[in-house]
Amino acid sequence: MSEQSDKSAGWVTFDPDLKIVDCTVRDGGLCNAHNFEDGFFKGVYDTCVAGGIDYMEVGYKADKKLFPGNENGPWKFSSEEDIRREVGENDTGLKLCAMADTGRTDLNDILPKNESVLDLIRVATYIHQIPAALEIVKDAKDKGYEVALNLMAVSTVPDYELDNGLETLHDVKEIDFLYVVDSFGSLYYEQIGDLIERYKKTGKTLGIHAHNNQQLAYANTMYAAINGVKMLDTTMMGMGRGAGNCPTELLVGFLKNPKFNLRPILDFVQNTMHPLSQDIDWGYSIPYMITGHQNEHPRAAMALRDSDRKDDYVGFYDEITSI
Amino acid sequence: MSEQSDKSAGWVTFDPDLKIVDCTVRDGGLCNAHNFEDGFFKGVYDTCVAGGIDYMEVGYKADKKLFPGNENGPWKFSSEEDIRREVGENDTGLKLCAMADTGRTDLNDILPKNESVLDLIRVATYIHQIPAALEIVKDAKDKGYEVALNLMAVSTVPDYELDNGLETLHDVKEIDFLYVVDSFGSLYYEQIGDLIERYKKTGKTLGIHAHNNQQLAYANTMYAAINGVKMLDTTMMGMGRGAGNCPTELLVGFLKNPKFNLRPILDFVQNTMHPLSQDIDWGYSIPYMITGHQNEHPRAAMALRDSDRKDDYVGFYDEITSI
């Protein structure tokens, strides 16, 4: 690394500015089209409150006109009504956020902050969508929210294009948090470090959202925290699309800040997540390793894992690496 | 880090001096007292040859007088006769090694090199056993072998004691390879980096043997390789005691040296290791995470995983953290 933090991890683990964002319902919901059993959302919420987690992501703010029918559960849309049914006025220290996908969001679905229990809007975008993403960013900031920009699939973006995009973001004062997102789980620490240095030039507070295709989600999140990233995305037992994410319990066990409390998180993992993991396939497996190594979207691995040849590693490898 | 390699990983992944040591039979054998089915050893061996692996560890050279009876399989003892039955004269590019535990080895069981197909003797020792370990080291070197010293459980050794021990090793010319061993899977990259810098002062070629309690075995092994460590221990599908080790397939997929070949390794993982993993419990799980975070020997977690309350994470956490 060209530039290392002069803070040791011993210091970083106590850093009061480190925030954990639990994305279990939002990213985990990609495993079951957000069709969780009754009580699951409240379980995550209560666990986040008891565990001292800083933010909980309740789901997406997707446009219902684009996703008609009953295929998707309520956290694909995260209506104010549904959120309040679970959390009331959210009279806790836990902040709530929702993700707005660029191109899939109707700005009318995002209420003014003073009418919502949401605190933070996270705008997800590919590099070529940045102008459209900034419309959501500015709208959310005007309405009174904290705003994050999550730049997806950066591992496939050429350096010059990324630097141009980041230069654009530098001047957007409405962005509070800018996220390094390893969508394909293809990055290791040197690459994460390189992105952090580039993203720091925007002057924004940084976040990281990692995927576990190479068993590196926790390692990369820890590395990011030690090197100045403040917003750390996790999910309970790592539940998330494909290989999943940095497990909340692993990161909380590492951080020493007494605001965090591992025991209620372990309780939820034991009694809710572990049983759920017997029914839904998420987390590291060899097909996800292969797409991670190849820097490819995990969709082919997800299809394999959902088929009757889920452990045909060699056949999958041959397909993915065929010319 | 006080001192970083000026080589990027892009360079390191091609480094011809990086060697992979597959420990599946030796460390994986700790999961089943080395009672593998017929054909397993040969399967690992053939896979290592086809995969371009540099060394295969065949097992321990334990003293049969200390382990009487039939509880342990043949790779607890790794007699020359048993090895040759599997590999003949080992007329391949794959080197073979065996582990000699300090205090559990009869020097008479280690033949002169010119009578053995073994190439490397790895001497495992705790810090307080170093004088006894050096007797094995010198005997093995006198007999003509390459020799490694694996210093176990270093995460519990005070710095001044470690530095004294390393100073002793500096002058032992019979040691070819000195191993950083994360016995409890409790270390993360900054700590690995600190140990590497201390160990480098001995002037030895370094190795790393990692455990996966915190999903960091691969991350730490990769970090070590990028920071100058040359001997990288792995096991097929990460099979090893407790949380297991750095998976061979993950590391081979990362390294770009064309001598390595992922496909035969995936074939063995698919057809042998994956079915075996349905019968034997190894690899990351929450109880191993807990002992890793606590820097404790995994034996309590192993006992839990072998009991009828294997997923009682909260009960186990309460036991481990009780005062």
UniProtKB/TrEMBL annotation, chains A, B:
Segments forming domain Pyruvate carboxyltransferase: 175-270
A Pfam short name: HMGL-like
UniProt keyword list: Manganese
Organism per entry: Pontiella agarivorans
Cited SUPFAM superfamilies: Aldolase
Protein's recorded name: Aldolase catalytic domain-containing protein
PANTHER family assigned to the protein according to its UniProt record, in alphabetical order: 2-ISOPROPYLMALATE SYNTHASE 1, CHLOROPLASTIC-RELATED (PTHR10277:SF9), HOMOCITRATE SYNTHASE-RELATED (PTHR10277)
